[in-house]
Amino acid sequence: MIAVIFCGCHRIPVKSAGIDKMNAAFLNPPLSARPGVYWYFMDGNMSRQGMTADLESMKKAGIGSLVFLEVNVGIPRGPVEFLSEQWQELFKHAESECRRLDIRMTLGIGPGWTGSGGPWVSAQESMQHLVSSTILVSGTTKNIIKLPVPVPKKPYFGEEQFTPELKKQWNQFYKDVAVLAFPTPVVNDTLQDIDEKALYYRAPYTSVKDVKQYIPSLPVYKELPKETLIAKNQVIDLTDKLSPDGILHWEVPAGNWTIMRFGTCNNGAVTRPAPLPGVGFESDKFDTTAVNNHLKNFTGKLLLKIGKVDTALYGGLKMLHMDSWEMGAQNWTLKFREEFIKRRGYDPLPFYPVYAGNIVESLEISERFLWDLRLTSQELIIDNHANHVKKYSHNNGLGLSIEPYDMNPTADLELGAIADIPMAEFWTKAKGFNSSFSCIEATSIAHINGQAVVQSEAFTGYLDGWKQHPASMKEQGDWAFATGINKFFYHTFQHQSLDEKLKPGMTMGPYGVHWDRNQTWWPMVDAYHQYISRCQYMLQQGRTVADILYLTPEGAPHVFLPPASAMTEDEFLPDRRGYNFDGCSPGQLYKATVKDNQIVFPGGASYRVLVLPFFKTMTPALLQKIQSLILDGAFVIGEPPVKSPGLSGFPACDLKVQSIVSEIWGGQQPPAVQTEIDYGKGKIIWGGEFDAKKTKELYPSYFAIAKLLATMGIAEDFKTDMPVRYTHRTTNDGEIYFVSNKTDKPIKGTCYFRTDKTAPELWDAVTGQTRKLPQFTNPGNQISIPLQFDAFQSFFIVFKKNAKPELNKTKNFAEITGITTLNGSWDVSFDTIWGGPNKVRFDSLSDWSLNPDKRIKFYSGIA
Question: Which of 344, 488, 524, 780 is paired with 860 by a 20 to 30 Å CA distance?
Answer without folding.
Answer: 488
